[in-house]
Amino acid sequence: MARILVTGGAGYIGSNTVYLLRRHGHEVTVVDDLSRGHEHNIAGGSFHRLNLADTGGLERVLREGRFDGVIHFAAYIAVGESTQKPELYFANNVGGSISLFTAMQRAGVSKLVFSSTAAVYGTPERVPITEDFPFAPVSPYGESKVMVERILGWLDLYRGLRSVSLRYFNACGAVPGSGLGEEHDPETHLIPLVLRAIKTGKPITVFGDDYETHDGTCIRDYIHVGDLAEAHILAIEALLKGAPTDQFNCGTGRGRTVMEVIRAAEEVTGRKVPYVVGERRAGDPPVLVANSDKLRQRLGWKPQYCEISEIAATAWEFERAREPVPAA
Question: Which of 12, 89, 121, 141 is catalytic?
């Protein structure tokens, strides 16, 4: 059992990781300012409502909790918003991280798992993507994560802060029985948008159907949030056992098109998905698929949800519990 501080633990991936950390027997404390997370995602345990810019407050929490390690989720994640407000993303994602790392140094906590993203790769020349691909972000969001990863490299070298950066592909689904799922505002992720279109009858927009893929729509690597949470747990446990600073892709290695996700949702729900086809979004790569061999081999990670229909079914279970589903 370890004492773990989780920043951003009221958000989607953070709350699922907290839920599974506790099931693994770890003692967890959550720090979140609730600006984008949800207090109802924090089920019991210790919670501090705190912004990462408050270095002194973070230091007090870290000293009092005598934590073995930190899992750092707290960040703004909307790519589109980051292009409209780059300064907000650099101040929050980079500045907030530096504040956290400073507090950790002062409190003597030297192990961290960082929530990074496949957006650090931008539009790769080929797939699947391995961890040695160059950084080439195409948004301030992706750049903010690159900057933090670079900072962590220097802190490992000169400050002894060991870290694991996990580069997510498309997190989705819900852990059965957890009561936790996607509740972004506004929602931008495909699976909840598809399921809510089924519930409301309001069409979603498929951005482009003329890509060089087998059905013309973008291909992405969809990873179940429970599998992603388990990767964080394996990473922090590895650091506590002495593992070095490292970086890992988090994806299944299997790409699915937008239309395949829509068909899977229709299969799971027994209903048609209303949609319209719109123009491509600027900066959307045709294909993003992970090579996760390094994560599997070094940390022993193995995804439990590999079929998109299975993932959609867990998301639908959460959506049905959120609010009444209109009659077909």
Answer: 141
Q: What is the rounded average pLDDT of the residues 119-140?
A: 96
| Residue at 142 is within a domain | yes
Q: What would the DSSP string read from start to end of 99-124?
A: HHHHHHHHHT--EEEEEEEGGGG-S-
Largest CA distance in the chain: 61
Q: Is residue 273 predicted with pLDDT exceeding 70?
A: yes
**Is 88 part of any domain?**
yes
CB hemisphere CA count around 285 (13 angstroms) = 24
Domain of 131, CATH number, reads 3.40.50.720
141 given a catalytic annotation = yes
The gap from C-alpha 287 to its chain's centroid, in whole angstroms, comes to 19
* CATH number of 303's domain: 3.90.25.10
Does the reported pTM lie above 0.85?
Answer: yes
Count of domains observed in the chain: 2
